[in-house]
């Protein structure tokens, strides 16, 4: 990311972190001073050549970016569209998350804090945080729902190898939302020494904006790479949406290109109509969760409803506020992809391209398969779709193996 | 023009601090929570803080989290909380409601204010709503004459503290420690400093909460604050009891101890 790419004036959010009616800060007063401190440090960093150069160097030399934009020809043939995969799965630690984590770890160092805490669902953000903490010599505590520690045991081991403390969270639904509650409680108590290294473009201001800015290199790269490869902008950009960081990361550079359709694919779980899903925009209502106003899966009284998805990284009952706004404004389209559709796309990518995607990313692939015929009909030609392959599937071998019945049931 | 001010005026006339006792509505059942709150009133708790159970209570420690989970698992609704408030207010005690913001937003801010006023509630304590985001609540509380208690923290800057206090009506809630609810072995050294910072900018009464669990601690806090707010220690009496009768007995005993603490503060 370069200084000239800094958000132009007039862009959202406003100074208090509002994207239209969404965003803002719904937090205990105890956290406001830390959020203000973070806001100041972040704004300073984003105009500081030294910071940006250090961040760029880390992304290049350590994380391995820019990630490739790869034309998946055999998958394309099955999709009926020209599918370009943004290979965030090839990044160090295996997902887009490393970009956010390196940016925030640099900020942590600048703020003089020595300890980072994080929440994690799939464990990808936890692993990325533990990685950055090792690199920057920071103490690291990762909160992870007990259910997730079981379905992502490999990532728990990874974090511990990297020197992090993993705390299984046993309250509530014992998944990502509860890990986030526990991280917030830790932060309230330790805010002087600790940075809450949030894993997605959600939470109170300035997190949604800050995380977006640290990951928006994905879209900046993809836009350039697509122009180089095809001589034109894509017809559509597709990404999965959990909290929303990989999707915003790839959308952001394309938002002003009104000819490029933006598609976010939410986890439809067992089907939105069953109530067992994680599609906050499709199946939720505006409300307040985890410090921000956004779309939330909730009952009539505003109690959060447990989300369900085969993908731990999408299993979250909220979504970043900028997505809520992109949805309301009509700039982006959000559609659900259910577990079976995602797993079919997972298998197709494995078999056609020799790439095992993260199950999260498989939702984006399934979404691309879904929209391709519509787009082809609309355009009267083969559409070009950039798909954010946000992560690799190594962590999901157990889940996918179980799903396809190719693992011993005892394992 | 404050509803809860009555309780503070009365205590001030007696030369003592107000005792505020917190309990989630619907814990362990709706009727059980009414009985618990009435028992607290009987033993000298001046103000009952009725907490609306919420699925994601980020300012609460394990005890209140667990009580809220039990209440929600029992099916308590926001409308039940209003019923609890009405029943407790009918005893003549002052009732203030503590709530995370989403349940109010989903009920409808104006509708909740209307129904809260009708139930005899005095106002809201809002742990995750800061004045910066509170326009709708400011308007609704004006319309129905309800009190607004925002929190101040040891980490609040002078400017924020002043701004927050200016938006309060009734009393100011000073969070004694940087942390979540839950009884602590020691009372906070930061609390007296925070209370005196609040006093520099307002004449409103100041309540201190987070961490108070014994009569002696209540007495200490009563030495410098206008209100002593106790939550987890009271909730634990009910949570840890083998049955309802034992829970009520423990709750009565602790309420009486705390009431004694604010009446005869420490030496
Ligand atoms: C590979 C991958 N993609 C996507 C996500 C979803 O998060 P977000 O919506 O913030 O990109 C995760 C979360 O863990 C992930 O690991």
Strand count, sense and closure of the main sheet of chain A?
6 strands, mixed
- Give the oligomeric state: heterodimer
Helical fraction of chain A equals 40-55%
User: How is the main sheet of chain B built?
Assistant: 9 strands, parallel
Biggest sheet of chain B: strands side by side, in what order? 5-4-3-2-1-9-8-7-6
Number of strands of chain A: 14
User: What is the helix fraction of residues of chain B, given as a range?
Assistant: 40-55%
**Average pLDDT reading of chain A:** 94
**Sheet/helix structural class of chain B:** alpha/beta
Distance between the termini of chain A: 43 Å
Domain Tryptophan synthase beta chain-like PALP (chain A): 65-391
Enzyme class (chain A): lyase
Organism (chain A): Micromonospora solifontis
Pathway (chain A): Amino-acid biosynthesis; L-tryptophan biosynthesis; L-tryptophan from chorismate: step 5/5
3D architecture notes:
Chain A is of the alpha/beta class. Chain A contains 16 helices and 14 strands. In chain A, the strands form four sheets. Chain A has a six-stranded mixed sheet, sandwiched between helices. A four-stranded parallel sheet of chain A has the order 7-6-5-8, with helices on both faces. Chain A has a two-stranded antiparallel sheet with strand order 1-2. In chain A, α11 links the parallel β9 and β10. Chain B is of the alpha/beta class. At the A-B interface, α1, α8 and β11 of A face α3, α5 and β6 of B. The structure holds pyridoxal-5'-phosphate. Pyridoxal-5'-phosphate binds next to α5, β9, α11 and α15 of chain A.
């Amino acid at each position: 990311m370069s200084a000239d790419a800094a958000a132009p004036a007039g862009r959202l959010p406003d100074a208090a972190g509002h994207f239209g009616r969404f965003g803002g800060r719904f937090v205990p007063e105890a956290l406001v001073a830390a959020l203000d401190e973070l806001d100041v440090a972040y704004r300073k960093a984003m105009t500081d050549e030294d910071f940006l150069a250090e961040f760029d160097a880390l992304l290049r030399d350590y994380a391995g970016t820019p990630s490739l934009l790869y034309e998946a020809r055999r998958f394309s043939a099955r999709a009926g569209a020209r599918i370009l995969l943004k290979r965030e799965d090839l990044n160090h630690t295996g997902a887009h998350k490393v970009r956010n984590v390196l940016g925030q770890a640099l900020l942590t160092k600048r703020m003089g804090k020595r300890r980072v805490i994080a929440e994690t669902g799939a464990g990808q953000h936890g692993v990325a945080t533990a990685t950055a903490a090792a690199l920057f010599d920071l103490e690291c505590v990762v909160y992870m729902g007990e259910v997730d520690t079981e379905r992502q045991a490999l990532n728990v081991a990874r974090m511990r190898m990297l020197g992090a403390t993993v705390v299984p969270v046993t309250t509530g639904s014992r998944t990502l939302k509860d890990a986030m509650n526990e991280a917030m409680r830790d932060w309230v108590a330790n805010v002087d020494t600790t940075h809450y290294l949030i894993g997605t473009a959600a939470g109170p201001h300035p997190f949604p904006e800050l995380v977006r800015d640290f990951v928006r290199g994905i879209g900046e790269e993809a836009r350039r790479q697509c122009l180089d490869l095809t001589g034109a902008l894509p017809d559509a950009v597709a990404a999965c949406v959990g909290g929303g960081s990989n999707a915003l990361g790839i959308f952001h550079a394309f938002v002003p290109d009104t000819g490029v359709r933006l598609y976010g694919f939410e986890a439809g779980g067992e089907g939105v109509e069953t109530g067992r899903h994680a599609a906050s925009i499709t199946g939720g209502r505006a409300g307040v969760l985890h410090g921000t106003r956004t779309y939330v899966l909730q009952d009539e009284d505003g109690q959060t409803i447990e989300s369900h998805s085969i993908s731990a990284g999408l299993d979250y009952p909220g979504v970043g506020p900028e997505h809520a706004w992109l949805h309301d404004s009509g700039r982006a389209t959000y559609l659900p992809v259910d577990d079976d559709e995602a797993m079919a796309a997972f298998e197709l990518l494995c078999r056609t391209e020799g790439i095992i995607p993260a199950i999260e990313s498989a939702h984006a692939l399934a979404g691309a398969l879904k929209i391709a015929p519509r787009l082809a009909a609309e355009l009267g030609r083969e559409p070009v779709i950039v798909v954010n392959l946000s992560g690799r599937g190594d962590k999901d071998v157990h889940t996918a193996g179980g799903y396809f019945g190719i693992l011993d049931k005892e394992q | 023009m404050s509803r809860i001010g009555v309780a503070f005026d009365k205590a001030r006339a007696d030369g003592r601090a107000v005792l505020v006792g917190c309990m989630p509505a619907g814990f362990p059942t709706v009727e059980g929570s009414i009985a618990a709150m009435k028992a607290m009133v009987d033993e000298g708790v001046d103000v009952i803080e009725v907490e609306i159970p919420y699925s994601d209570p980020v300012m609460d420690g394990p005890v209140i989290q667990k009580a809220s989970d039990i209440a929600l698992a029992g099916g308590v609704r926001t409308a039940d909380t209003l019923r609890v408030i009405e029943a407790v207010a009918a005893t003549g005690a002052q009732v203030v409601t503590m709530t995370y913001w989403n349940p109010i937003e989903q009920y409808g801010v104006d509708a909740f204010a209307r129904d809260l006023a009708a139930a005899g509630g005095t106002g809201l304590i809002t742990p995750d709503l800061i004045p910066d985001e509170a326009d709708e609540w400011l308007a609704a509380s004006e319309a129905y004459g309800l009190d607004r208690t925002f929190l101040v923290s040891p980490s609040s800057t002078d400017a924020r503290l002043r701004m927050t206090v200016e938006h309060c009506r009734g009393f100011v809630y000073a969070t004694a420690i940087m942390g979540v609810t839950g009884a602590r072995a020691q009372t906070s050294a930061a609390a007296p400093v925070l209370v005196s910072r609040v006093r520099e900018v307002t004449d409103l009464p100041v309540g201190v909460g987070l961490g108070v669990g014994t009569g002696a601690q209540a007495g200490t806090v009563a030495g410098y604050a206008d209100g002593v707010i106790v939550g987890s220690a009271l909730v634990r009496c009910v949570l840890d009891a083998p049955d309802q009768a034992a829970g009520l007995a423990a709750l009565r005993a602790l309420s009486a101890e705390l009431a004694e603490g604010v009446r005869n503060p420490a030496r």
